Amino acid sequence: MNNAAVTVVDTDGVTFASVRHNDVSHLAGLALARPGTRPKFQFSYRLADARRDEAFIRACGEGAWRAVYGSLQLFSSDRFFENARGILEADRRNAFLPLADGRPAGLLLLDSRQDDEAATGHIALVYLLPEYRGMGLGAQLIGRAVIEYRARGMKTLRLNVATVNKPAQRFYERMGFRRDMPLYKLVSRQQVMKLDIHVPCEGQMTQRAAMQLDEILPFWEKLNEAQRALLRGAVHERRFAQGAVIQSTSENCVGLLAIMEGQLRVYTVSDEGRELTLYRLLNGISVFFRDLHYGKPAIRRFDPRAAGYRRAAHPAGRL
């Protein structure tokens, strides 16, 4: 999602002032791809059409069912397609085909007909063809769902996952979803999972963080008022679910981080796929740089003492 930043310029017709530059606060709560799974490419999208894409939609339903249950026993292609067609008839922007080199690579279904919970957008299906799995590409479909539902005023995403589908549950948890209540369906037991996608207004987001800039930055007193205003406007306060990935070597550097509550764990991934903790950060300030070598991701810590930054009171802690 490197192309999802927002830039805002304020003008009175004569002068221009930058309000936001490369702002990605609207993506708060979305975890980045894991360091060892750098996406091979970015999907483009087109809206699905029930008539033109019927065969592919049916194939996606069959593939999703087979991936979970191992066979097509109890699966009804007609029932699945009728439900998908109803989703499309409710809103043509409810169905997206991610495209890889112009060819459909999967299917994203958003069910806007579900209105049992206020300000909650339901995801009916997130599916990728087998050849596109295991590359960190599923996060792009979740990102598309977030963009669509935020534009409709939704504050929460909801989806159901079969309890036997443990890999899918782990994937959604890495994306920041939390487990809610279980559901008992005719065929299987399912787990409800939710993701908070609400972005508070700018004042709510930045007020507390902006008030502490003078405590965080040792050079604050040397800045003029215009420079201070520029920094205040660039500060964003965010909250992340425990276990969410907020920086990856496959993404651009997030810049300066002031940890106001909680802890950060910095880790790398071994050749065997194990997460190896490098260090933990408590309240304080740190700068992250990335040193990326193909197949050997690494994150280096900037030494705060060399630049006059304050260190955390304790060098390590527990999540």
The main sheet comes to:
8 strands, mixed
What is the alpha-carbon Rg in Å?
Answer: 22 Å
| Secondary-structure element string | EEEHHEEEEHEHEEHHHEEEEEH
Q: How large is the share of residues in beta strands?
A: 25-35%
Mean pLDDT: 76
Question: Which structural category fits the helices and strands?
Answer: alpha+beta
Work out the number of β strands. 15
Low-confidence stretches: 33-38, 202-206, 287-319
**What helical percentage do the residues reach?**
25-40%
General form: globular
Task: Count the DSSP helices.
Answer: 8
Describe the fold and architecture.
The protein has 319 residues and is α+β, with helices and mostly antiparallel strands. Helix content is 25%, strand content 28%. The protein has helices at residues 54-69, 77-90, 138-151, 166-174, 202-211, 213-216, 225-234, 304-307, and strands at residues 6-11, 16-23, 44-47, 95-100, 103-104, 106-111, 120-128, 156-162, 178-184, 189-196, 256-259, 264-269, 275-281, 284-290, 299-301. Strands 3, 4, 5, 6, 7, 8, 9 and 10 form an eight-stranded mixed sheet that branches. Helix 3 links the parallel strand 7 and strand 8 (156-162). It is globular.
